[in-house]
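Quick one:
INPUT:
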């Protein structure tokens, strides 16, 4: 808590005083990141470059035009990339000359410029433009960055390239031109596959799925997903996005069971800070569970920071649980704008049949004999159709055929006769419920075991130690044998 307060006070001071030491400190941190990238490039250690990217996002809010301009002068001075990138950075007044003066004595020439540093500068400028809401300039900068990146093939660039792909797509999405880069993303995915860049493949596959789903092209998204190369996940964030997109595709294609598993897994694996992503996962998971005939637990709607966002879905769940068609219709009309924004309106239309079936099940439990006219009135079919009795008869017949209710239909008297409910524990339902819970726990245990991290080459080290002991034992026996031979000679 103390560190957070100190950081806030520093930012407030920086805003009140343009010549505060915050800018030089930020510039110094960026220079340390440069040395980290250089070390990772020379030693071929990708983890150092990944750490540099994480440190960069920690400094993202402190980036200003003077700091960025000074940093570009420090890294790219004398190179072609310098003139290209500085054109996107706005020129500031003379109030920030102190920052530039402080760095003029340590500027280095741009010869022998590492490709990792050049791509890192592209990423930094792109982040700055997006944060400043200069989306058109961000589009131009990202396009130039991708054109430069396509000419390089270095494994130490994979981490930087994956972030660049993401912001390249984001800049076009913010301007509403996402369809323009679909062909470019497919080309980049093919290049990443040929270069065995699995992190790039993972990121680009998610970007392509997002591109297709943005325009409701679910069939094309499924074809791409099913034919894309398969590999182990390298990024937890990208894996969560993939599960979310896969769950949405399966929901549209009526594969509710698999969709529920993927959506819940995405929400569970997502970082705690990604609250917006977890909200979207929970919204779709609630709809899928309702379509499966399940009622989500109340605790899902009371998660910290999600109560207001999930309020429409809570009221929708309540209407489905009760089986009140009129209440369901009112909730759908009341929150129609929210459902359209979340793109779940078409799924909610599918829920109407579940509401009717739930209401019919409640009626069959409450009444041993009831007329079809009363069934239509209780289900709220009077205002929805011209012949509610005929509609109620067809609904009851279909529910009996699907084994949703245990009853018989008397066409002559126009009534529904419910059968007595037996002991549920004499059926296989408890066994099926326990089986599904045990399978869920086993799957979670297997995933936890697979994600355990062990020291690299630990089994090899153990084997080498055993071999070392065998070798020492053989050497001792050989030395003893030689000593005995020497004694015999004497």
């Amino acid at each position: 808590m103390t560190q957070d307060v100190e950081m806030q006070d520093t930012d407030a001071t920086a805003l009140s005083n343009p010549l505060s030491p915050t800018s030089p400190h930020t510039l110094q941190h960026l220079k340390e990141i440069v040395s980290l990238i250089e070390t990772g490039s020379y030693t071929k250690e990708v983890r150092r470059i990944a750490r540099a990217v994480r440190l960069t996002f920690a400094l993202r809010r402190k980036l200003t035009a003077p700091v960025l301009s000074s940093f570009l002068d420090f890294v790219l001075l004398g190179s072609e990339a310098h003139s290209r990138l500085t054109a996107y950075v706005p020129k500031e007044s003379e109030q920030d000359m102190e920052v530039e003066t402080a760095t003029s004595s340590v500027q280095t020439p741009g010869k022998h410029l590492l490709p990792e540093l050049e791509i890192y500068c592209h990423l930094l400028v792109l982040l700055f433009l997006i944060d400043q809401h200069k989306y058109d300039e961000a589009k131009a900068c990202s396009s130039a960055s991708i054109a430069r990146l396509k000419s390089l093939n270095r494994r130490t660039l994979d981490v930087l390239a994956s972030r660049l792909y993401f912001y390249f797509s984001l800049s076009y999405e913010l301007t509403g031109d996402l369809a323009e880069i679909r062909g470019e993303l497919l080309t980049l995915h093919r290049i990443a596959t040929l270069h065995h860049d699995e992190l790039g493949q993972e990121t680009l596959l998610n970007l392509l799925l997002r591109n297709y789903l943005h325009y409701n092209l679910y069939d094309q998204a499924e074809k791409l997903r099913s034919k894309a190369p398969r590999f182990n996940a390298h990024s937890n964030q990208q894996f969560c996005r993939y599960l979310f997109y896969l769950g949405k595709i399966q929901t549209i294609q009526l594969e509710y069971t698999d969709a529920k598993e993927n959506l819940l897994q995405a929400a569970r694996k997502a970082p705690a800070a990604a609250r917006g992503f977890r909200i979207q996962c929970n919204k779709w998971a609630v709809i899928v569970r309702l379509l499966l005939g399940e009622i989500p637990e109340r605790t899902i709607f009371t998660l910290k920071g999600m109560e207001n966002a999930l309020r429409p879905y809570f009221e929708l769940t309540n209407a489905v649980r009760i089986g009140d068609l009129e209440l369901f219709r009112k909730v759908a009309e009341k929150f129609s704008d929210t459902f359209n924004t979340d793109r779940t309106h078409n799924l909610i239309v599918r829920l109407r049949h579940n509401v009717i079936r739930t209401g019919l099940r409640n009626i069959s439990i409450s009444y041993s004999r009831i007329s079809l006219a009363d069934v239509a009135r209780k289900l709220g079919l009077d205002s929805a159709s011209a012949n509610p009795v005929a509609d109620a008869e067809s609904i009851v017949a279909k529910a009996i055929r699907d084994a949703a209710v245990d009853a018989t239909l008397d066409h002559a008297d126009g009534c529904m006769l419910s059968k007595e409910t037996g002991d549920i524990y004499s059926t296989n339902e408890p066994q099926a419920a326990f089986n599904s819970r045990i399978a869920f726990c086993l799957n979670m245990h297997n995933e936890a075991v697979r994600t355990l991290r062990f020291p690299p080459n630990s089994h090899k080290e153990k084997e080498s130690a055993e071999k070392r002991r065998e070798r020492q034992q053989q050497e001792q026996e050989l030395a003893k044998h030689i000593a005995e031979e020497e004694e015999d000679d004497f």
